């Protein structure tokens, strides 16, 4: 579904991604782990072109999306993204947050968008909050709305950048549960997280990033059970 070849990103003279190679299959759940500052967020943001890569190539569903002629908006619609800070529209209700883009961008009728949104709210367990405003929700509820909002665009892949890092500990589980359900339904997902239990349980493949490279990758059993590289061993010894 996605092929990344020698992906590079620099901010001015500062090289952040130094050559990332990766192939993501449809339905695969990739979990990206690694120390702060290693380039995990930059990598995700390059995948959906929130950041313009400075080198290399990304193909998505057979098309080069790093080609200058490519329409970025077409790709973004197919890649849902969920951030650490939920980024909900504060002056819109839960239902309006979810239906806004499908009506504006996908040209769905309001009735159709409402119906899809209610189905999604049921999936994330928040049917009864459809008329609430973000300020009336807990962090975990806000993040579940953000996930429903991303799903409303019917993306082909979902990117998560530390979706539970801003949550109080007691709310982490409800968000991970929704993500696990998505994974079980076959959604292709790339997830940056520090939740190692979740990574081990739900990830098909774990990538360990450090210093702008993928240092090591493998199944959860391989990476967590017998990490090969000293840097991976060192990182895991601090977080496990
Ligand atoms: P991670 O998500 O692994 O913590 P990031 O991808 O956020 O790492 O950041 C990697 C490095 O890139 C950091 O040193 C950060 O300061 C730098 N960086 C990220 N975004 C920018 C930017 N817009 N301009 C300059 N430097 C940036
Ligand atoms: Mg980050």
UniProtKB/TrEMBL annotation:
Keywords: Amino-acid transport, ATP-binding, Cell membrane, Membrane, Nucleotide-binding, Transport. The keyword Oxidoreductase does not apply. It comes from the Bacteria. Residues 2-236 form the ABC transporter domain. It is found in: Cell membrane. PROSITE patterns: ABC_TRANSPORTER_1, ABC_TRANSPORTER_2. Transmembrane segments: none annotated. It is a peripheral membrane protein. One of its GO terms (molecular function) is ATP binding. The keyword Transmembrane does not apply. Belongs to the ABC transporter superfamily. This is Amino acid ABC transporter ATP-binding protein. It comes from Paenibacillus sophorae.
């Amino acid at each position: 579904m996605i092929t990344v070849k020698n992906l590079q990103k620099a901010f001015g003279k500062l090289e952040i991604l130094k050559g990332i190679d990766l192939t993501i299959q449809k339905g695969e759940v990739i979990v990206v782990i690694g120390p702060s500052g290693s380039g995990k967020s930059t990598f995700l943001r390059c995948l959906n072109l929130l950041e313009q890569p400075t080198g290399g190539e990304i193909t998505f569903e057979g098309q080069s999306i790093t080609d200058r002629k490519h329409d970025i908006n077409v790709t973004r619609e197919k890649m849902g993204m969920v951030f650490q800070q939920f980024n909900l529209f504060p002056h819109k209700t839960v239902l309006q947050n979810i239906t806004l883009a499908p009506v504006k961008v996908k040209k769905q009728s309001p009735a159709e968008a409402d119906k899809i949104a209610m189905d999604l709210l049921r999936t994330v367990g928040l049917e009864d909050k459809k008329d609430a405003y973000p300020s009336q929700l807990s962090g975990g509820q806000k993040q579940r709305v953000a996930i429903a909002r991303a799903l409303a665009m019917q993306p082909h892949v979902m990117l998560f950048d530390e979706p539970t890092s801003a949550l109080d500990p007691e709310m982490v589980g409800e968000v991970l549960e929704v993500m696990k359900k998505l994974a079980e339904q076959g959604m292709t997902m790339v997830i940056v997280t520090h939740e190692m239990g979740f990574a081990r349980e739900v990830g098909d493949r774990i990538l360990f990033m450090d210093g702008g490279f993928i240092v090591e990758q493998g199944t959860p059993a391989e990476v967590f059970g017998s990490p090969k590289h000293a840097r991976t061993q060192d990182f895991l010894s601090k977080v496990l």
